[in-house]
Structures
1.
Amino acid sequence: MSNLDILNKHNFKFNKSFGQNFIFDKNFLKSFVVGIVDKNTTVLEIGPGAGTLTSILCENAKRVVSFEIDKNLKPILDENLSNFNNVEVIFQDIMKVDITEIENIMGEEYIIVANLPYYITTPIIFKFLENSTKLKSLIIMVQLEVAERLVAKAGSKDYGAITPAIDYRGDAKIIKKVNRTMFTPVPNVDSAIVQIDLKNKYNITNNKIVDETIKCIFAMRRKTLENNIKSYFKLPTETVDNIISECEFPKQIRGEKLTTDEIIKLSQVIEKYLK
Ligand code: SAM
C-alpha cells in the first residue's frame, strides 16, 4: 500500500494552515538524501507528514528524530514507520520547544533534513541559526522564492536579513529545484532544496552583535544606514558618523547594499562604540 493509500485509509484531511504539501516519490527523495546522510548521521526532521522522507532517512541515517505538530498523523506515521527502530516522532510544535531541550534529545551533533512548512520557514531557520550549538547543516526544501533569498547577492532584490545571517555562519547553495507537481496537494509555487553547511568562517565570538547589526541594517530598508544605526542603537549623530567613516563606507549608503564582509566589519566597529 502506498503512503497516499495509507492516508486515505485513515481518512486524513490535509491541513492547509500547517503547510501540509507532502511528497510521496521515494526515488526523488532518495536522490538527495543519499550522499548527504549516512550511518553516522543523526537527523532532526521537522514535519514528517506521512513519513515518506522520514522512512528514507531511517534507511540511511544512524538515528532520526522528527517533530510533527499534527497529532492526526500519528496512526499514519505509526504504520509507515513500523519497520524502523531508529526513529522517534515527537508530536509538538517545533517553534514552542526550547532549543536546549531539542539538543538534549538529539544528544550529539546533528543535521536538519526537512520539507519545511512554508508558513514558518524563516522563523525555523532563525531559531536554529541563532540558538543551536550542535547543528552542522540544514538540508531544507523551501519555496523557490525563499530559496533565492537564502542565497541572494548583497544589494539584489532578494537580499534580506536572512541572507547575511546565513552567509556569515556558513555556505548556502541551492542543490535542486523542485517542481510544484511533486507535491500533494499541488501548491501554487515551485520549491527548491537548499543546503546550508555551518562553519565559523569569520571566527566570530559574539554572534549577538552581528545579529543585532543585521537587524539594524534591514530594520527600515528605505532609510540610510546612518539613520538606521541612529534609531536602532540609539546613538548620537556624531558617533554614527564616526562609525561609518571608520568603516570607510560612503555616508549615504543604504544598509541593504552591504556585503557580509562589510556587515562583520560594521558590527565590530559598532561593538567598540557601544562599550
Ligand atoms: N515531510 C513531509 C513530506 O515531505 O511529505 C511533510 C512536509 S509538509 C511541507 C510540512 C509538515 O510540517 C507537515 O506534516 C506539517 O503538519 C508539519 N508542521 C507544520 N508546522 C509545524 C510545526 N510548527 N512543528 C512541527 N511540524 C509542523
Note: The chain is about 40% helix and 20% strand.
2.
Amino acid sequence: MSQPASLPAIPTLVPPPEEFAAQANVSGIAAYNEMYQRAAADPANFWGDLAATELDWFKRFDKPLVWEPPFAKWFEGGKLNVSYNCVDRHVKTHQRNKAAIIFEGEPGDQRVITYHELQRLVCRFASSLLHLGLKTGDRAIIYMPMIPEAAIAMLGCARLGIPHSVVFGGFSAEALKARIQDLEAKVVITADGGWRRAKEVKLKEAVDEAVKSCPTIEHVVVYKRTGSTVHMQEGRDHWWHVLDETAIEDVAPVELDSEHPLYVLYTSGTTGKPKGILHTSGGYLLQATMTMKWVFDLKESDTYWCTADVGWVTGHSYVVYGPLSAGATTVMYEGAPDTPAFDRWWRLVDKYGVSIFYTSPTAIRALIRQGDQWPAKHKLSSIRLLGSVGEPINPAAWAWFHRVIGHNRCPIVDTWWQTETGAILIAPMPGAVGLKPGSGTFPMPGISPQIVDNNGNPVEDGKEGFLILRTPWPSMLRTIWGDPERYKEQYWSKVPGAYFTGDAARKDKDGYYWVLGRVDDVMNVSGHRLSTMEIESALVKHHAVAEAAVVGKPHEITGQAVCCFVTLKKGVADHEKLGGELRQWVAHEIGPFARPEEIRFTEALPKTRSGKIMRRLLREIVTSHTVAGDVTTLEDMNVLTSLSAAHDED
Ligand code: WT7
C-alpha cells in the first residue's frame, strides 16, 4: 500500500506523550530499566514476589520455580483457582458491581454483566457440568460464538479444574473432530449457531458431524443463541437453559495445584497434525495479569476492548483471563467489523467509551482500504491507548492507526508473543518507552530474548537471526498435549537448551527488537497461524490430487495468502472446475479461514534428490516471480521454468 504524497511522513521515534507518562503504571525509561534489571538478576524470585501479591492463593507456594529443562513448574506447592482470581476476588471488593463484560451481538443486542452477575453465571454453569457428572481432570471442548457464554464456559471449566480447549467457530467439523479426539474430551459446549455478516454460522451441525466419530464424548451442551432448529440427540444433548433450571449458585472453586492444566489450545506446527499447546494455572495467570498492567497500562476506570475471538490465544489471554484477573471491564463483540457497515467498530468504541483498543494489522489494513470517512463519523475521543498483535505491523498501517484512530494522541503497543508463550513477551510499556513503528521495542521484565545464528551464537546488533529465549517464564507452554517428545524436539532442540520461537528478528543499535516473520513452514494469514503441511495433507486427501506444495504469498491486506502448487493424478483434466473445488475442499477440511487464495496446477514440483519438496523455491516464485536462490540440489531443472510459467487457474 503506497502512501499518497500528501500524508505526513512516518515518524521514526515517538516518545511517550507527557500526559500519558504522567499517569502511567510504569512511567519513564528509568522505571522500566530498574524493573528489567531487578528481574534479570533473579527471575524466579522476581516472579515469585509478584505471584504472592498479585494473585490470590488458597495455599502459598513453596518455591517459585522448579526447572528441569525443558520442563518447568512454577509456584510449586501453591493452590489456587483461576476462576476465583478472575471473578470471586473482585466480588469481595468495591468492584462487585463493576461491569466485567460488556457484550454486543452482531444484530445489536446488548448485555452488561457485572462481576457479581458473572460469579452467579459461572457458578450456575459449573453446577450444570457437575450435574452431568463431570469432574476435575475431565476435558471439555468449547465451540462457541463470541458471546459471554464462551467466557462463562471457560471460567466454569476452570472453576472445576476441567481443562478446556476452545475451538475457533471458523474451524470445520473435520478440524473439530481431530481436536476432540486428541484431547479425549467428554463434553462439547456449543451453541445452535452464531451471527457473522448477518448469516448464521451453524455450530451445532458441525458438532453433530464431528462427534459421530468421537466415542469419548458423553455430553453436548447447547446454548440457544440464534433460535434456529437443531437436532438434539436424546441422552447426549442438553440445552444450556434447561440444565440451568436446576442449577445452584453456590459452587466452591476447586483448590487446584498451580500446575493444574487450565487449557489446551491447538495451533499449527510444521507437520500436518496440529499441536495441543498446554497452559497451566498460576504462572499463566500471573503473566497474563502483569502484562495487562504493564503493556495496557490498565486502570480501574478503563473500558478495554480486544477484538480477537476466544478461539485464538489472544482471546484467552486478553479477552478473558488477563482482563478479568486484573479486574477490568472487557468488551466482547460477536460479529464482523463491516456489519452493517464499515464503521461498526468505531460505533462500538464511542457507544461504550472504549479507552484501550487492541487489534491486528490485518484488520487495520482492511479498514484503511475502506477509507477514512468511516472512522471520521465518530469521535473516538475515549481511546487513550492502541495495541497491535499477530504479525509485524507495516509502518504505513501503524501511521494510519496512530493518526486516524488515535488522533496522534495515543501510544500504540506492538505486542509480540505466541500461542506457546501464553502472554506478551516483547512490547513497549507505553509510559516508559519511545515507539518505533514496526518494532515491538523491548522485552518484558523477566524475559531475556537473544538473536542467534545457525549455530546458536549471538549475532551482532543490526544483523538478522533466529529469535530464541534461554530462560523459562511463568506463562510458557508446559508441553504438547500427549507428546512431550515433540515438545522437546520442536522447541528445545534447534538451539540446544534454548526455546526456539520460529521467528526471525533483529535488534537495532538502540536495543529495539524487530520481529521479521516465521522461518519455518508456518504461514501467517490475517494474524492466524496456518501450517503449509496441514493444507498439503488436506489437498492430497482429494481424489484428483497427486501432490501438493503450499507456500505463503505476500498479500496487501492479510500479510500472507495461501498459494498451492498442485499436481494432478494421471487422467484428471478439467482444471477449470477443479481450482474452485479444491479451494472449497480445503475450507471443508480445515475451515473457511484457511481457504486458499490461489491454486496453481503444475506438471511437477521442485524436489531435492532425496525427494524433499523445495518450498523455498516456490516461495521465491510467488514472491519475486523468479528464482535467484541456490538450486544446486534441485533434481530436475526443467521444473523451474514450467513452474514460473504456471498461472493461476482460478
Ligand atoms: C506468531 C505467533 C500472539 C497472538 C497471535 C498470534 C507472529 C505475533 C507479532 C508482532 C511480529 C508477530 C510471529 C509469532 N507475531 N505478534 N507483534 N510482530 N510478529 O499467535 O498464532 O501463535 O502466532 O505470530 O510470527 O511467532 P500465533
Note: The mean pLDDT is 94.
